[in-house]
Amino acid sequence: MNASEFRKKSNLKWKGLKILSQIELKAFWRNKNILYSQIIQPLMYFLFLVVGIGGTIGVINYNNMMIPYEAYALVGIMGLNMTSQMTQTIYRTTIDKRWGLLPLKFLSGIKPFYYILGMSTFPIIGFVTQSLILYFLSVIFTLNVHILDFFLGVSLGIVSLIFWTSLGVLLTVFINDYQKRDTIIAMSIMPIGFSAPTFYVIDAVPNYINFIASFNPLTYQIMAMRSIIYGQPNLMYIILTIGLTTFTLIICSIVLLKVKLVVNEK
């Protein structure tokens, strides 16, 4: 029986997901440096960028609602947090490849689908932690964000995050060179984050920005979360967000079923 056949017949299923999630949870709390950076990042974005711009702009028109700019950009920071969390998945998956844990986990009976979800635990905890910090900031600055709507928005954010973690696993599987992978990440994270409507209002920018944003998955994820958090859920954006995650998760699972289980990190 070859490795691919073995993986197809493996049956750990949710037990494998539970094991991976526990491992990733312990790894998150043990890595204090990453924990501190997760806390500092949203604070820096909000206090020194968003509040500064908000002091100049004041309020904006969002779907015929006048809301403070800080409230609008709050969701944009959540979007940036999602894409930055992809690097944590890449880091954790790289460790698995480098030390032979990736083939060991697969050959132990963990299906690729559950592996991807399990490896999303680390970034999900980070994203939720950052989102809670942003909610507390919204309370301090009296942005009137309803807690239930915010919770629903974060839930959709977790779905969106799995899209980025799936991409992170794919990148790690296909690119074996550390330097090349780091270069791709460095050159893509910032354009993805800032070409989406994180800090700008999509109806008030030049056409070329809208054109670029239309090809950016983060655009639709942010707009879906924003519509939920501010009480005007846009069904089209929500369905598109869930669809993108489902499609990417399936593709990544299929690729992992067929990938060679070898240690070839450079």
UniProtKB/TrEMBL annotation:
Bilayer-crossing regions: 39-60, 72-91, 112-138, 150-175, 184-202, 237-257
* Entry keyword annotation includes RNA-binding: no
Keyword set for this entry?
A: Cell membrane, Membrane, Transmembrane, Transmembrane helix, Transport
4Fe-4S as a keyword of this entry, yes or no, is: no
Q: What is its main location?
A: membrane
Check the record and name the InterPro entries matching this protein.
ABC2_TM (IPR013525), ABC2_TM_bact-type (IPR047817), ABC_2_transport (IPR000412), Nod_factor_ABC_transporter (IPR051784)
Q: Which domain of life is it from?
A: Bacteria
Q: Which Pfam families match?
A: ABC2_membrane
Q: What is this protein called?
A: Transport permease protein
Q: Which organism is it from?
A: Fervidibacillus albus
